[in-house]
Structure formats: C-alpha cells, structure tokens
Amino acid sequence: MTDAAIKVEDITYSYGDLQAVKGISFEVQPGEILGFLGPNGAGKSTTIKMLTGQIAPKSGLAQILGKDITLDDPDIQARIGVCFEEKNLYLSMSGKENLDFYASLYGIKDAGSVEILRRVGLADRAKDRVKTYSKGMRQRMMISRAFINSPDVLFLDEPTDGLDPVTSASIRNTIKEEAGRGAAVLLTTHDMFEADELSNRVAFLNDGVIVALDTPENLKLKYGKRSVKIRLRDGAGVREETVALDAPESGELIKAAVGSGEVLTIHTEEATLEDIFIKMTGRGLAG
Amino acid sequence: MSRTVSRASIVSAIVKKDLVEFSRDPLYLFLSILGLVFFIGFFWIAPNTVNETLVLGVHQTGMDALFEEFEQGATEAEGLKLVQFASEDELKKVVSGDVEYWESEDGTQRFFRDKAAGDKRPEDAKRVAVAIGIGFPEGFLEKTAAKEKTTVTVYSDADVPAEIQGAMKSFVREIAYALAGNELPVTEPAQENIILGTDRAGDQVSLREKMRPMLALFVLMIEVISMASLVSSEVLTRTVTAVLVTPAKAGDFLMAKTIYGTMLAMSQALIVLVAIGAFTAENWALLLLTMLVGSVMFTGVAMIVGAAGKDFIGTLFYSMLFLLPLMIPAFSILLPGTASTWIRFLPTYGMTQVLTGITAYGLGLADVWKNLLVASAWVIVIYLAGLFTLKRKVESL
Lengths: 287, 397
Ligand SMILES: Nc1ncnc2c1ncn2[C@@H]1O[C@H](COP(=O)(O)OP(=O)(O)OP(=O)(O)O)[C@@H](O)[C@H]1O
Ligand SMILES: [Mg+2]
Fold this sequence. Notes:
- The structure holds 2 protein chains of 2 kinds.
- Chain A is of the alpha/beta class.
- Chain A has 3 domains: 6-79 and 151-219, P-loop containing nucleotide triphosphate hydrolases (Rossmann fold, 3-Layer(aba) Sandwich); 92-146, no CATH class; 225-269.
- In chain A, 32% of the residues lie in helices and 29% in strands.
- Chain A has a 6-stranded mixed β-sheet, sandwiched between helices. A 4-stranded antiparallel β-sheet of chain A has the order 2-1-4-5, covered by helices on one side. A 3-stranded antiparallel β-sheet of chain A has the order 12-11-13, covered by helices on one side.
- The longest helix of chain A has 16 residues, at 165-180.
- In chain A, 43% of the residues are buried.
- Chain B is of the alpha/beta class.
- Chain B contains 13 helices and 8 strands.
- In chain B, the strands form 2 sheets. A 5-stranded mixed β-sheet of chain B has the order 2-1-6-7-8, sandwiched between helices. A 3-stranded antiparallel β-sheet of chain B has the order 4-3-5, with no helix packed on it.
- In chain B, helix 10 (284-308) runs antiparallel to helix 11 and helix 10 packs parallel to helix 13.
- Chain B is elongated, with a radius of gyration of 27 Å.
- The two termini of chain B are 29 Å apart.
- The chains are: A alpha/beta, B alpha/beta.
- Adenosine-5'-triphosphate binds next to strand 2 and helix 1 of chain A.
C-alpha cells in the first residue's frame, strides 16, 4: 500500500469562539512515525481527537486508511489504536481484564493480553486491579491498550508522560517495533530528545498552525547553527570562545582560538529541536 | 487486519464489564444488599392485622327472620357486620359513597348524610363505611323455592379484594340452600357484580399488604443510585471515549446501559417481591411485566442522573431530586382515601396503581390495563429523555 495511512487537508476545529486548530495539513505513511511538537494548548490533542472520531472537524478533509473520518466507519475504527492524554482505565478491573474487555470490542477472542502487558513491563501485575498501579504503570497500561488490536494506525498522545528514563527508553522501543511492523504512528510529546529519536518527521504546531514540518535533521540544518565551544584557562580564570561552523573562515578561527591558551574542553554544539522551536515561537515548549 | 464484530457481542461485552465493575464496588453492593435487607425486614415487621370490619350492606324483602339469624351470627364472628337497607337504591348510594351511612355508638340510631346536598355531620355517631352490598330481588324467596332463576346484585367498591367478592358468592349460594331446605336448587341464583367508585375506605387490606407496591418501587429507586453512579463514573473518567474509538458505537453503549440497568433493577425487585410474597399463581406474569416496565423507567431516570452528576455526591443529589417526587405516589397508597389530583400527574402514579392493584387487591390485566398504559407512556417519555441526555453528554466529551 503506497497510500498515506493518515491524510489531513486543511482541517480546523473551534471550541465555541476559540479556534484551536486553524487549518493544518500533513500525511503519515505506513511505518512512519510523525512527532507532533508544540506548547501547551497548541492544538495537538484536539487534532488527535478529530482524527480518532471523538470530535468532527469544522472544515477540511481527513482520511484514515483512505476513508473519510466523518464516516465513523467501524472497519476503520477496528484498525486504529489510541493512547489518550487522560488515563481512562477501569480502575476496579485488573490490567488483563481491561485489555480483554477492549479486545472483545474488536471481536478479538484470544487477545494475548498478558503478552501485550509484558511488552510494557506489566506482565507480573496483570492480575492486580489497575487501582493499585502507580501513575507510570497506569500510563503503560494506556499504551498497551492502544496495541491490543495490532492497529495499522496508532495515535499516541504523550505516551511517555510521567515515565522514568529507563521505562521511557523501553516504551520508545516498543513504539519503534509497532512502526517496524508497518503501523503509521502519530505521537505528541514534550520531550525533544524523544521526538528526535523516534520521529521520521516532526511537525511543529503553534497556536493551531503547523509552523514547520520536516525530518529532524533537515530542520536542524535549516533552522539551527552548528558551532564549536572552546573553554580555555585564562590566567586565574576560564575563558570561553564560540566559533560558528558554517562560515568559510571557521577553520582558521578555531585554529586561532585553540592556540590562544591552555584548552580545557572542546564541544561541538548542534542546534536542538528545542532551540529551533524557541526560535520559531518565541517561547519554550514547557511553558 | 480487518475483523467484523457483531453489535450484539459488543453490547454483551459492555454489559459483562458493567457487571464486573458492579460486583467490585463495595458501595454498589452495600446499597443493594442494604436495600434488600431493609425493605424485606420492613415488610415483615409491618402490622398484618386488619382492624377494620367488613361491613356488608343488604337489601331484602320477606326474609327478615333469616337475616336476623345471620345478623346474630355476624356480630359474633369478628370482622363482619351486617347492615340492612330499606331500598336497593339506598344501598347502592351508600356503597358508591354518594351517601354516607352513620350510626350512633349503640347502633340504635341511623343517619344518612348526603354530603353533596350539604348535610351536616350527625352528632354522637360514627360513620360506617359499607364496602359491599347485596340486593335481593323481590320474591327471591319464593322464586328460589320454586327453583326459578333470579338475579341477585352484588354492589362492591372497586377495590374490594377478589377473595371477598368470591366469599359473597358463597354467601348468596348458602342463603339459597337454606331457603330450599336440604334440596339443592336446580338453578343457582345468577349474580351480577356492579363495581362502584374508587373510594378505598373500608377495604380489607393490611398495612403490610399495602407496602408491597411501595417496596417494589423503592428497590427500583435504590438501583437508580448505583446505576447512575456507574454511568457517571464512565462519563467522568472518560472510559466511554476509549470505548467509542473502537468499533463500538454510542448506540451500543446506551443499549448496554439499558440492559444492565434493567437487569439490575429487575433482579433486585424480584428478590424483594419473592421475599415479601407478592407473587401468586395468577399474578406472576402481569407482575413481571409491570416490573419490567418499571425497571426501564428507572433506567431512564438513572441515565439522566448519571449524565448530570459530576461526582458521587452530585449523583446522590440528582438522584434524590428526581426520586423524591417519584416516591410520592407510593407513599400515598398508605393513606386511606383517594389520591389528590396532582399526584395523578406524577410519572410513577400509574405504575403504583397497577402494582397496588396486582399485589394488594388481586386485580388482573382487565382491571389495570389503563394504568399500565399510562405507566408505559411515561416510561417511553422518561427513557427517551434519559437516552437523549446521556447521548448528548457522551458526544460532548
Ligand atoms: N473541551 C474543551 N473545551 C474548550 N476548549 C478546549 C477544550 N479542549 C481544548 N480546548 C482548547 O483548545 C486549545 C487546544 O487544546 P489542546 O488540548 O488541543 O492542546 P494541546 O496541544 O494538546 O496541549 P497540551 O500540550 O497541554 O496537551 C487550547 O486553547 C484549549 O484551551
Ligand atoms: Mg494535549
């Protein structure tokens, strides 16, 4: 299949007078991970809500697996998986019971729920009620639920929110595995490292508009400046010199700087996604 | 990968899940068990004695000697009193309640009071409510003796229990036997039943029996609280959004809630009704049907409440807001006399009347169908309102 798994053309959404999404367009191919980045309130979750049929776009066109999302087609719903921003689990039921229940809504008899829980590191807690899970465990439950029907399209709204670094890394691996078997993944995150590591492409969303959409490398090349930072001993103190790498005279400048004293450290400085975003929106992502 | 899953299996999966959640929540269980124990206990400690005497009005001619004997016997037998009337018309008016019959304390003086005509309350007298009357036609004695067919008219209040009406039949037959000596008359006197009015004064139903319909309704109401909190928790924690991004539709969710709520309310109500001995060989089908109608009505109420409540206390508040007015008709059964007009416009009134008729007065479908129809109309209104409210709430998430 060469058609895009997710195809969005100029969709908008307003909550009353507030226009949360102001006409965005993008595509996600099967096997591709698209990272959605943007400050709080940018419209990331609203976009996911539209694409998963929770709310209907006010205008524009959106297709999942070639079918218009407003059709509310059960055949399409059977092929998507969603990890919500809010942890909406049945607390009085065990992890396994939660997964088995959702599996039955897809008509899956033998869901292999414990196996799926193993992928997120919860197999040994499968029989415990979700009520007794920690915040991070509940988040992992949310992710495992999105995997229950081996979806062709995955929507993950801040999947690693609240996870410790080791668990985050392991969850990132499972997300890569999903993409590896051919699933198209749309994920939002506030973790720039994660976006960089996971995403084939990233979209910067600000105030309901996509302000940049490309591979992380291209974005860094396009918007960032590479440089070398050299720290030198200067008498009793420490001196720091920064030399940009993109100018023709860069080599000469570095030579001069290194020769001017006792070198303590040399670092190459690459632009990060965060630098780029701050530059483009005038504020930090965490704000 | 594409699978097809039937609506029925989606709905049944949701219902199964609801039952698991119900069984895990100590609050729902507590409410249900408390309801059962409390209502059943309440029923069995309620007084079961009838302190009213059944007053039988009689009009006859030419059988004075016979009735003197009966009257004597009646005074000795507790709970029966015989009052003779000079004319059949007088008897009919008294049974229907158009004219009140009063007696002095020693029973020697009699008064008729026509309220509509503005008659005053007789002094030093007490009212005697005549629930049932028998009018013997002129020449009954002779005709029966000659084995001719005659007609005896039995007048009764609408709510006189079937058993008592049956007893009247044997009473008439016995008189006929007595008159014909040892020989059985070839034809039994035919009987005609005329049922008058709806005034319950003087009926022979104990407080305990009157409580049956009330308890049945209360159980349904208790279920509203647990069903509503289950619905509202599903809405508030947004688990419903997770359900709706799967092939399950909003309609499946609502259908599942309807089945779950009805099942829960029905089973609780059945336990109580069985425990308080409301089912009989005659009434069980009609009673089941009525409880089904009631269960759907309260499921509708639970959907409205569940969509409105923001937390458990909110749910409790809205439950009470809806349930208190709905309980009024049930309470009004306990009070003698006819219900005020405004009570008749409450959605549970028809249902209450049907339940009372079936469980306390032994009525059948022929007697209660009108009220059952009224109740069903209300069920449709309330259930649709519940469906609409909850659907809107779910879609607004
Ligand atoms: N249910 C709602 N009712 C009204 N306004 C809403 C609602 N949900 C979101 N909004 C508004 O829509 C805009 C976009 O919100 P959205 O949740 O899509 O942001 P987001 O990018 O997911 O943010 P975050 O990073 O905080 O999750 C915000 O201005 C928000 O206030
Ligand atoms: Mg969000």
